[in-house]
Every structure is written in C-alpha cells, then in structure tokens.
Amino acid sequence: MNGLISRAALNFYVTLRALSSPVAFGVSALAFDRDGRVLLVRHSYQPGWMLPGGGVGRAERPADAIKRELFEEVGLMRSGTPEFIALYTRNAGWVTNHVALYRLVDVEIDFKPNLEIRAVTFADPRNLPSGTTPPVARRIQELDAALPRTGYW
Questions:
Q1: 8 Å CB contact between 153 and 90
Q2: Backbone dihedral angles phi then psi of residue 139, each to the nearest 5 degrees
Q3: pLDDT above 60 (res 3)
Q4: What is the domain extent for residue 87?
C-alpha cells in the first residue's frame, strides 16, 4: 500500500510539474540540395520563410523525427544522414520548446502543397528571400560561422 501512495504522489507531482512548466521537443532541418541551396518552407499558419521541422513523437529518436517530418511536410525522397548541429531553446506562449537542429545534405523532395506547408523554395544561403524569418537567417549564419551560436532560437 505504501508503494501505491508513493507512486500516486509521484504521478501527481509529475503531472503538476508538466502543467506548470510544459516543455515541447521539436526538430528543425537545415536541408541542402546538391547545389548547396537551403530548403525553406512557408506554413499555412505562420508568415515568412522558415526551416522545415516539427515535433518529436514519444520514444522517437530526433534524427528519425526530422526525416519523418521532411517526408510528411515536403515529400522527402532522398537525403544524407542527419547531422546534429545544436540544441536551442525558445518560448512559445507558456510552453518552452527545445529544438534540435540537424543538417541534411543531398536533399531531394517531391513537394505538393498541403494543409501545413503551402510553398517551398531552395535558396542561396547567402542571399535569402525576402520574408525569411530572423531566427532562420541567424541559424544559417551560425552554421556558416558568421555568427556565434546563441542557444536561443
């Protein structure tokens, strides 16, 4: 009986902790085609050009999650092995997001607009299109060592 009470108290504490400071884990990709251009996406629910990515499922490896997200969002057909770049933190409302950033090369996609992603482009990393969000431009500059990594998205 004492074990049941301890387990119930622990479950209550964990639930209370999750509600008071929720954390979401996601992945984003710096995905480059054979010509060295970076893949950017335009969401249906947010303005600007962004990096593709999404949430990591329960018990899913982040490297698997980024390939799954690219397949679901932009029709990933081929890529090199995801290379972990850095872990970032950002606030999203009352939730804290941790985002694992991966680099993928030799990316080939078969994109069809869908409910989440309306458009894609492969852009020159040194000449990003108008409307590229500041965090995305910063991640690209960090990768190129033009700026130091901040740890914050």
A1: yes
A2: -60, -40
A3: no
A4: 22-143
